[in-house]
Amino acid sequence: MRASSRISFIDDDPSFLDAMVDAVASVRRCEFLHHPGELDRLYAEQEDLLRREQQMLARIVGAESPLLAALDYFAWPGRHAIFSVLVTDQVMPAEDGVSICERHGHFGLRRILLTGAADADLAVQAFNQGSIESFLPKQTRNLGFNLRRALQDQFLHNSVERGRQLAMQMRRDRFAALESADVSNALMVILGRSRVDEYLVLGEPFGVLGLRSDGRLSWIQIETREGLRELGESLAEFDWDAPGVARVRAGEALPNVELVSQLDGIAPAVAPIEVLSEVEGVLAAEFVFDWPGAVSWRTLPGGAAA
């Protein structure tokens, strides 16, 4: 999964935080803080929000209509309030960075410590003890670049951790297909092309449900060549009525069977096949659709854009 999330920066030096605004604010939604007390107030509801998120993901896994349960997750505004990464300076007058990281070491939060030259050994010790997930030297010309790279890495780990329930219920062969470099890279191309900001990878039905930057939804249906042949035969048996059904039987397109069966108001359709991996024989087709309330999904508390 890739979820909406926030970054919190804490440093007692206002000029440094001002420099960080230009360096990393475009990566995700950021909050820049000067005192641990501000951080504590922002994090007061984090554990409750993450617990609620896990409950919603569990509902997707056990639902009769997983796509509908996944849409409920995207309609939940609380996901916008979850902090995924904490970046803190080590040396501050009110409280040091390691202490802050230890105090906020809850599930679903990745912690990056910014260190001075004298803090290297302390940072290694904190990392080995599990108090932080990453550390970076603060006084370097490449801090902005290194920090952006570290943030992207922690976003990935955060998404894997928070979405573990979805991965655990996936069939082994499907999970193995997604781990293929060809398949994962091809999926990232489709998601980027469609400007998908958030997505959930589902095992049943097999595919990726994504929320696009324009508020519309993308369902990227994943199938094997063998499965496509079986689909073509099934459509003939069930008298599937959609333009282009002959292309499905010819192995050129996929039908939106799962969307039609789980979501009201979705018309039968087919979409051209994209090959994710010739070696693995994995195919995909993207279906873009609207859903009631989609506009509100792009709104954060206070009216800010996601």
Strand fraction band?
Answer: 15-25%
The backbone outline, from C-alpha atoms, is: elongated
Euclidean distance between termini CA atoms? 17 Å
| SS class | alpha/beta
Compressed to H and E, one letter per element, the order equals EHEHHHEHEHEHHHHEEEHHEHEEE
Largest sheet: 5 strands, parallel
Helix content: 40-55%
Would you identify the regions where 5 or more consecutive residues have pLDDT less than 50?
A: 295-306
User: Taking Cα atoms only, what radius of gyration do you get, to the nearest Å?
Assistant: 22 Å
Number of alpha- plus pi-helical segments: 13
Q: Report the mean per-residue pLDDT as an integer.
A: 88
Number of strands: 12
Strand order of the largest sheet: 2-1-3-4-5
Written overview of the protein:
β1 (6-10), α1 (14-24) and β2 (29-33) form a beta-alpha-beta unit. α3 packs antiparallel against α4 (66-74). The strands form 3 sheets. Strands 2-1-3-4-5 form a 5-stranded parallel beta sheet, with helices on both faces. It has a 5-stranded antiparallel beta sheet with strand order 6-7-8-12-11, sandwiched between helices. Strands 9-10 form a two-stranded antiparallel sheet. It has helices at 14-24, 36-42, 46-62, 66-74, 97-103, 120-128, 143-162, 164-168, 172-179, 181-193, 225-237, 245-249, 257-262; strands at 6-10, 29-33, 83-89, 110-115, 134-137, 196-202, 207-212, 217-224, 253-255, 270-272, 274-277, 282-289. The protein contains 13 helices and 12 strands. The chain is elongated. The longest helix is centred in the middle third of the chain and has 20 residues, at 143-162.
